[in-house]
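re: that complex we talked abt at group meeting.

here r the seqs, copy pasted straight from the sheet so there may be weird spacing, ignore it
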Amino acid sequence: MATVLKIENLHKSFKLGFLLKKKEILRGISLSVEQGEVFGYLGPNGAGKTTTIKCILGLIFPEKGNIEIFGHPYLSPKAKEKTGFLPENPYFYDHLTASEFLDYYSQLFLMKKEAKEEKIKSLLRLVDLEDSADLQLRKFSRGMLQRIGMAQALLNDPSLVFLDEPLGGLDPLGRKEIRDIITRLKDEGKTVFLSSHILQDIEMICNRVAIIVNGEIINQGALHDLISEKILFTEVILSGVNEKELKELGECLSGHGDRTLLKVFKEENVEKALQLAQSSKGKVHSLIPRTETLEDLFVGIVKQR
Amino acid sequence: MKIKAIAFNTFKEAIRDRILYLLLFFAAVCIISSRLLALLTVGDKVKIIKDVGLSSLSLFGALMAILMGTGLVFKEIDKKTIYTIISKPIHRYQFLLGKFFGLVLTLFIMLLLMSFIFLALVFFHTFTIEWEMLIAILFIFFELCLITSVALLFSCFSTPILSSIFSLAFYLIGHTAWGIETLIKKIPPGVGKTLAQFLYHFLPDLENFNFKTEIVQHLDIPSDVYLYSILYGIFYTLFVLIIAVLIFRKRDFI
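got the structure back, here u go
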């Protein structure tokens, strides 16, 4: 697979406060993104995710390092023609209607009139805003703004799309809609660079991830390589069983009515718990083996630092 | 084409700004109240109406340029709308020039509206349309272009309040620079004179665009004076825009 984005040894610092004290935000970031993958860029707040994206898109200038997009220098128009960008908490020209807004941005790509009109219609359909085409952006909800932001990021049919916290602040339905669009982009063979700290979503849609903490990449690779498939513990929900006997098999976490949630760490104890339920004429409501999640990995790494 | 797109968007945004209409209202009040002033003053009433009217055009045009120009770039950075623009295949200078021409277009329309009110008022007194007034108005427009470029320059690195103060200072200094010229003639040679000479050449002289008195008094103005003023306006505006571009292209949008 071809490399679409290559970052080498990226450094950036800002001068802050009255005394202009220098604060290092990025400390030698290096990563590469391959064609057609959804690349998750994870990190706690203030880790340097947005700063990295801003450097790639030429919004801020790195002090050191090299960035290439499709083999072109990152600031060249050729690189920018192939990329799309949805910023975090997007705010657009609220005096424009949705279609006026997309029309304005399409002019920046020098799109021809017919192609432009067709593209705007199809994008409004894609983000489910056809009915709001003539509504001013000031009247848009948070989710609608995120979707129109997604539409502007896709105006030039980009091969590489940067999404900075696209799922932040959205309700579950809004999150699902954005996730569906990302999955669709992936199916179309586009590359998505997704920055987020909503780990469940990243786990659901990303092929590879990089974890950034304090301006350094701590871990990167394919999700299945990073996360162990070994069973960490098993969660068993039972009822009609004496809790005292269960405590010998594992950790009793919570009770809801007569139900008990038991966290069992040894595999042989799972069998014993089931036998106990059977002998006490109790009931097993669920039994879920838990493997390591991205959240476990992430929390582990952040705590270590 | 890209500059045009940004200019038209800037224009659309600017004409929705309430400040613009507030200033337009006060400009209209000032122009119309010149008739009242004319009644209270001894002398040629029409000349007073013309004097006050043209001065109102200049002052309110400058206020529009300053109050709107100083927020042009700052607002884009503050509201982060600039993120999605600069990430598109567009050069930063194109963005800045688009903003400049957008506001210049807005000011042009506003100046047209104010001029219409002014010329109509003059017409009610003289029953002739005094086209030569348009020469004075054209130079007011050149002055407004220069002030817009200055406001845009400050807007590239400062907040709207500070930028407005700086731009207003530029406007006031620009209209009092002739005082330094008088000072140069009066003080003896030395450090003071050299300093005054330096300041005189460095500071703008916006009186180069002031033909109000000459036009109102029907005085002859040699064509080379017009030419000098036009070239002065174009080159000074270009100079300020180049500095603005140089600052803007190095700026981080945090």
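couple things i noticed - The mean pLDDT of chain B is 88. Chain B touches chain A at residues 1-2, 4-6, 9, 12-13, 16, 79-90, 250, 252-254 (CB under 8 Å).
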